Amino acid sequence: MQKTVPTEQARQGRRGRPVLYVLLVSLFLCALFLGAASLWILSTDMDDSEPQVGVETLRGTPAG
User: Fold this and answer.
1) CA gap 49, 43 in Å, rounded
2) CB 23 within 8 A of CB 30
3) In the predicted structure, residue 52 carries a pLDDT above the cut 80
4) 39 half-sphere exposure, CB direction, 13 A CA radius
5) Whose CA is closest to 54, among 45, 63, 46, 42?
6) Nearest CA-CA partner of 22 in 34, 10, 33, 30
7) pLDDT, mean of residues 12-40
């Protein structure tokens, strides 16, 4: 004979706000990380302390 289990007890976990909170917090942290990474890339990209090596420097003669 089969045992009947109510649907509330057969579930593995509850749905609701805790899952939504985890998803929203993880999305916020991901956006925060991407924003910080892009700012760091932009700040290091504007640093012109090292000279740029061009094709003319490698050839030894000016192009043209």
Assistant:
1) 12
2) no
3) no
4) 6
5) 63
6) 30
7) 88
* pTM of the predicted model as reported, rounded to 2 decimal places: 0.49
Confidence of residue 46 (pLDDT cuts 50, 70, 90): low
15: pLDDT strictly greater than 80: no
Q: How far apart are CA 34 and CA 28, in angstroms?
A: 10
SS (H, E, C) the chain: CCCCCCHHHHCCCCCCHHHHHHHHHHHHHHHHHHHHHHHHHHHHHCCCCCCCCCHHHHHCCCCC
From 32, 51, 28, select the one nearest 40 (Cα to Cα).
32
- Contact between residue 50 and residue 44 where contact means Cβ atoms under 8 Å apart: no
